[in-house]
Amino acid sequence: MGMDAVEIVIGFEETFDVSIPDSAVEHWFTPHDCIEGLVKLLGAETAFAPCPTQRCYHRIRSALGDMGLLKQNRLSLSETPQQFLGSLLSRDFWERLSVFSALPEIQSCRQRKQGTWRDVVEDATIRDFASLRRRSEPWTRHWIRYGVLGSVSDFFGRIVSDHDRFIEDLGMD
User: What is the model's pTM?
Assistant: First the structure.
C-alpha cells in the first residue's frame, strides 16, 4: 500500500471513527469498493437514516427562502442557478448562501459554470458531508457513500465518482 492509500485510509478511519484492518483494503480499487467494504465493516446494510441529498436540498431551499429569493417555496432541481437567479448570481450570492444554509463548502459551487441545482446539491452533499450528518444517526450506505466521496475528493482536490479507479483515473501512487 502506497503513501496515498495510507493517507486515504487514515482519512476514512477519522471520518467513520473505525479501525480498518489492512486486509480489508487490499481490494479497494475505487471509491465504490471502499463504500462496500465500509458498509460491511460498520454493519450499515440495514440501518435507516434520512437521505443526505434530501437534507442538503432542504437546507439550500430553506436558505434561499430566508434570503428572499424563493418564489412559492419551489426549487426545481433541473433548473440551473443562472436560470433561477439571473443577474443576482455572483460571488456574494454563494457566500450568503453558505452562511444561510450552514454549508460552508457550497461556495466552491460558484466555480461550476454549467450544471443544475441537482448538481449543486450533489456537490454540496459531498463537500459538506460533516455539517449535514448528525453524530447520533446510524451509518447507512448513503451516508457512507458521501463520507467516502468527501474524503477522497478532499484528498485529490476535486469531486470524484464512485467508479473512478484510484491508480488509473486519479493518479494515486
Answer: 0.86
Nearest in space to 151 (alpha carbons), one of 2, 15, 4: 15
Widest distance between CA atoms in the chain: 53
Spacing of C-alpha 82 from chain mean position:
22
Which of 40-44, 47-51, 78-82, 135-139 has the lowest average pLDDT?
47-51
| Cα–Cα distance measured from residue 72 to residue 133, given in angstroms and rounded to the nearest whole number | 28
With both helix axes pointing from N to C terminus, report the angle between 141-156 and 52-66 in degrees, rounded to the nearest 10. 70
Name residues whose C-beta falls within 8 Å of residue 97's C-beta, 6 or more positions apart in sequence: 60, 63, 64, 67, 103, 106, 107
In this predicted model, what pLDDT tens digit does every residue of 2-47 receive, in sequence order?
788 889 999 999 999 999 998 999 889 999 999 999 999 998 877 6
Using the CB atoms, write b or e for 87-109: b if 16+ within 10 Å.
eeeeeebbebbbebbebebbbeb
